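INSTRUCTION: Work out how this chain folds

Fields: amino acid sequence; protein backbone structure tokens

Chain under study, with its fold:
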Amino acid sequence: MPMGATLGGVTPMRSGPGICSLQMLPRDACEPRLGGPLVHASLLRCRWSAVRVWGGRVVAGIAVLLGACGQDSQGTGDSSESSTGRGEPSTGESSTGDSSANASESEGGSDAMTPSEAVGTESTGEGSASSSEGSGAQTGTATSSSTSDSGDDSSGSSEASGSESGSDPTPASPRSDLPAPPTTGVPRPAGALGGFRVLDWAGFGAAVSYTFDDSLTSQIEHYPALQASGVRMTFYVVSGNNGSNEVWREAALDGHELGNHTAHHCRGNGTGCTWGTFSGSLDAEIRACTEHLQSEFGVPGVHTMAAPFGNTEWGEAAKTSLFINRGAAEGQVAPRDATDPFNLPSHITATGESAESLNQLVDSARNAGTWQLMLIHSLGGDGGASPIMIDALLDNIEHAQNPGDVWIDTVENVGAYWRAQTVVSAVAPTTSGSATTWVWTLPEHFPPGKFLRVTVDGGTLLQDGIELEWDEHGYYEVALDAGTVALVPEA
């Protein structure tokens, strides 16, 4: 199977010996698209099975490779390196574009895709692959369960038989690719009807996002070590600086976010461009970068940006096509707070900042139950702003990963959860008979295919007439695209 080949929204990832890794892509990342018709097909030496549908539409998928595969403990990682490894093989060519500008990002002054592990056995005939439920750690879980499409294909929950029959099993509820929190064995709520509430930070105690600005040469050179850490990150690419380097395609395939850092990294008034010449308007700068990422690397959607120099003017421009803009002012984000999503705070790593200093920020978020965004520029040797040592950053990531209580993910994923929680939590439900219903409208330019994790005191949650499945980690997953969820008494 060639790298990058996809079907049903899943692409195989590179992996070490004896390891089989799979990666979920956003729902419109490939054909047949997630959200499109249920598909069963075989491709070259892989057996593919679209195994999660909802109302006859694909919402998740798993590819079952021939033979047995070992678990990949790295999640997003290139599994030839351990999660604490420091190996840094060459990432290939890097652009010779000017990356020597020291563009400090201070306020007002101066940045689907998730692997699943699967153990599969091939069966003969198209659409007849069976698979066990994929498992994931910090980088996500994709649960396999399928149903029929127009009665042509049928398969059982968790094990897809793919045999064609006239049966029409009850479709399973959709599931996200978000990582699972460490708590397990939580019983399904069986109390009085009611008590609907959204969990903070997808069930984790806090959240951290690592963001990298300016698409600098040192980021490209150290990408293998960043990838080996096993967490999803956001790379804010300046299309005019190393913007066509193939490492960004690699990063997207590995599950990281490619975000918009504009075409030429100019100030909010159009002056002082770091790389190239101002495009004529802030909208044009943003649009050019988004179009570049989509055309160059096949990124299906660009949903967040980072303001060059932290200038607040970029936040207004971002509203025309994006749902989040990361700024450069110090601070953290709390669930359902009044933080401006178009000027998210972040910590700009200082030149030579130590792991201990960064660890204090992570622990602060742990204690407060907040979201800490890290803004990283240079990793040394390229003339970029505020360089820090790669080992210090990796030590900090390892600190954030343990003991597993912090959700480490992209700005898009954490930001979508944060914004949606605010929206859904503010909804006044309506009651008709014994059913209580919540209806919401997502913000403009909100990315598709996102979920919230909720719990109740008792009752059954339904979306599109389908009963939501309880997850033993302590939640139901609500698909935000549906725009509604209902709570009804137990049957």
User: Anything to note?
Assistant: Residues 203-412 form a domain with the TIM Barrel fold (CATH 3.20.20.370). Confidence is low (pLDDT under 50) at residues 1-166.
